[in-house]
Design brief:
By secondary structure, the protein is α+β, with helices and mostly antiparallel strands. The protein has nine helices and 22 strands. The strands form four sheets. It has a six-stranded mixed beta sheet, sandwiched between helices. A six-stranded mixed beta sheet has the order 14-13-12-16-22-15. Strands 2-1-4-5-6 form a five-stranded antiparallel beta sheet, covered by helices on one side. Strand 19 and strand 20 form a beta hairpin. Helix 4 packs parallel to helix 5. The longest helix is centred in the first third of the chain and has 14 residues. The protein starts with a strand and ends in a 5-residue tail after the last strand.
Length: about 350
């Protein structure tokens, strides 16, 4: 069921204005910092938040706009949030059966549907338990079954893994990935790039009530055009203006790199490179090769990051806020600690230059 939405809303100083589409059977992830409007978009789609202006159609059926504003229970939408919100007085089976039962199915048919979905989410053995007897991961499995038992035309997922512990979240993420392969059209709100990579076909990045980046998930996360997207993707991003061989920053420094085909000279652009591409040397020490991008900086933090140590720095110019990944042995050899003066270098071949997406 294809979703097409245009939503405008104003609350105090906050203004939301977005327009997007989700092809039938695909998953769109909405990413963005807190307060960017992601959950408000879901609320408007579900009919739980009133927009000043909205045009929302699902499979050609108007949910809002043109004088129509359907109530939530008639929109054919399932909503799953970070809290399972199961009915505490009902068993797991009856919680899931509630969805088809409220849609008019018989009690027997509703329980058959519930049993099918509980089996689908590997929770059939929990059928007789009450919500108070379930772990967080188990409750979320049941909530997924209940949302899908209603056979929604559109599924809305609002931070569905945020309340789960680190052991439960991967299992639930894998479960949703399997279910959504043949499931309904879905809009997912998340802060976690792993959620987007695992579940979403496309992403839209929001900031200040606007969509500022959008595209196929891997393309957006591998070539971010805003600082937020770069941060969640674990990449460094330096903003400036496109020049022949890279970008020129606000203070006049040039960061050399390889421009994408759509970069326009003189227009806003960003230089993007991974922490693994950043070499770190003692300040004023000798370094190998002749990388075009070098800058002085001061170590601000050392953080374990899997098998490497992520070095965060401060400084003037493009080096400010850059991160570098070094082996523990390299950190020890360089005697790095917060306050250490260092020189950073990045080879131009490791730097990708992209147009900078501006809020519309």
């Amino acid at each position: 069921m294809t979703l097409d939405a245009r939503i405008e809303l104003a609350r105090g100083s906050f203004e939301l204005s977005v327009e997007f589409g989700v092809p039938a059977g695909t998953v769109l992830a909405l990413l963005g910092p807190n307060g960017s409007g992601k959950s408000t978009v879901l609320g408007c789609l579900a009919g739980l938040v009133a927009a000043q202006s909205a045009q929302v159609t699902l499979a050609g059926r108007t949910l809002a706009g043109d004088g129509v504003d359907l109530p939530p229970h008639t929109r054919g939408i399932g909503l799953l949030s970070q809290d399972a919100l199961l009915f505490p007085h009902l068993s797991t089976m009856d919680n899931v059966a509630f969805a088809p039962r409220s849609a008019g199915a018989s009690k027997r048919r509703s329980r058959e549907v519930a049993r099918t979905w509980l089996a689908e989410v590997d929770a059939l053995e929990l059928a007789d338990r009450r919500p108070g007897q379930l772990s967080g991961g188990q409750a979320q499995r049941v909530a997924i079954a209940r949302a899908l038992a209603a056979e929604p035309e559109l599924l809305l997922l609002d931070e569905p893994f945020a309340a789960l512990d680190v052991d439960a979240a991967p299992a639930i993420r894998g479960l949703l990935r399997r279910v959504l392969r043949t499931g309904p059209t879905t809009v997912l709100v998340t802060h976690d790039p792993l959620d987007a990579l695992a579940l979403a076909d496309h992403v839209a990045v929001m900031a200040d009530g606007r969509i500022v980046e959008r595209g196929p998930t891997r393309a957006v996360l591998s070539a971010p055009r805003t600082a937020f997207t770069a941060r969640i993707a674990g990449l460094n991003l330096v903003a400036g203006t496109a020049v022949d061989d890279g970008i020129r920053t606000a203070d006049g420094q040039v960061v050399a790199g390889i421009p994408a085909a759509d970069v326009a000279l003189g227009e806003p652009a960003v230089a993007v490179f991974p922490p693994s591409a950043v070499a770190v040397y003692p300040h004023d020490g000798e370094h190998q090769g002749s990388p075009r991008n070098t800058a002085g900086a001061v170590v601000s933090a050392l953080e374990p990051h899997g098998p490497v140590i992520r070095v965060r720095v401060t400084g003037t110019g493009w080096a400010h806020g850059v991160t570098a990944d070094l082996t523990p042995a390299a950190v020890a050899e360089l005697a790095l600690e917060p306050g250490s003066a260092v020189t950073l270098s990045v080879k131009a071949v490791s730097v990708a230059v992209h147009p900078s997406v501006q809020p519309s």
